[in-house]
Amino acid sequence: xxxxxxxxxxxxxxxxDEAIIRLLEQVTPLDDSEVVQLSHALGRVLAEDLASxxxxxxxxxxxxxxxxxxxDDLAHNESLTLVGQSFAGHPFEGEAKPNTCVRIMTxxxxxxxYDTVQxxxxxxxxxxxxxxxxxxxxxxxxxxxxxxxxxxxxxxxxGTQVGAAEMGVLATIGVxxxxxxxxxxxxxFSTGDELRPVGSELAPGQIYDSNRYTIQGxxxxxxxxxxxxGVIEDDPEAIRQAFRHAASCADMVLTSGGVSVGDADYTKxxxxxxxxxxxxxxxxxxxKPFAFGHLGKAIFCGLPGNPVSSMVxxxxxxxxxxxxxxxxxxxxxxxxxxxxKGELRKFPGRVEYQRGILSYNExxxxxxxxxxxxxxxxxxxxxxxxxxxxxxxxQGNTADGTLVTVEPFNSVLC
Length: 414
Known about the structure:
Blueprint: H1 16-24, E1 33-37, E2 50-51, E3 61-62, E4 66-69, E5 80-86, E6 100-104, E7 116-119, E8 123-126, E9 129-132, E10 142-143, E11 154-156, H2 164-172, E12 177-181, E13 185-191, E14 195-196, E15 207-208, H3 211-221, E16 225-232, H4 236-249, E17 252-256, H5 267-274, E18 276-281, E19 284-285, E20 289-295, E21 298-303, H6 307-325, E22 336-340, E23 351-360, E24 366-370, H7 380-384, E25 387-391, E26 403-408
Parallel strand pairs: 5-6, 13-16, 13-17, 14-15, 17-21, 19-23, 22-24
Antiparallel strand pairs: 1-12, 2-11, 3-10, 4-6, 4-7, 5-9, 8-9, 18-20, 20-21, 22-26, 23-24, 23-25, 25-26
């Protein structure tokens, strides 16, 4: 008997891969920048190339704790005479003399005239006489001035997102402040008379507003400057004023709820009046209702109200837009194949992002287990998961042991 079709599927629904292509065509990177201190640069995007004002390393230095000496002296000497030491920050002041050596620490300058370092584990010291096991080659264990970067050499390029390694590189070349792309500003609010703030009492039919907190977390992890405008009641004029205020202070306006087809879902109606709207019902589960458009100069994205739908559509549709607006390159998400533990139920018709737990068995094989109930209101399924199990639009039920496509969560969702 043929598999039953998804009751929410329609032939006109757009595939999410096509949707993201069309969305990206309608946004451009920000073109303004600002100067920030290095200590505040984490996650920011460079707005210019950066060159080194010094050589890296700035001087010849030792890669080991050991002894520095002239390699050729080993050819006719049983031992060398210890004449001093070179520590990081406290270099040996003299010149190299024949048949001598100095004690040297990792990172310390190699004194002029010495050309090789032997690690201390291959050296024997007896009352000032140093017996050195011959190293493999002259120049062993020395990091040479400029071997990593010469003065004027580019170290980082415009469009690079500053991570921990980049902050270290910039500190290494003495950069204390840098020019970065201005942070994208996103104003967001939730709509719904049923929503109540956390910490208040719930009346019959009311729920706590969780979406604003998940959106706040997602935006923070994406290094976005956010403006929380709270909960807006299901009233056309209240939504209109919220839209106008949000569009006046942000690059993107993000809402949660109000983009479905209910009698009190006014978001699309007001958008049609206040801006330009391209409205998609996508072939995606969870998250079919999704709205995109413009409010003045601001981009608009309307997420579904169900908590999991809101997170999935942000991750799959909104986050790539924010990356492009920050000037970051588009990258395909990492996916892999994993053996399904258990069975999956699915109707053909929409691409599904079921929440899963990816692990590896004793043989090193990837396995994935679904987190339990997959309803779009079950936010605990996102908290328990570390990946999406991606089921293709035409795919139906999936048997235990089947290899399925898995997309591990990245830093935005982790």
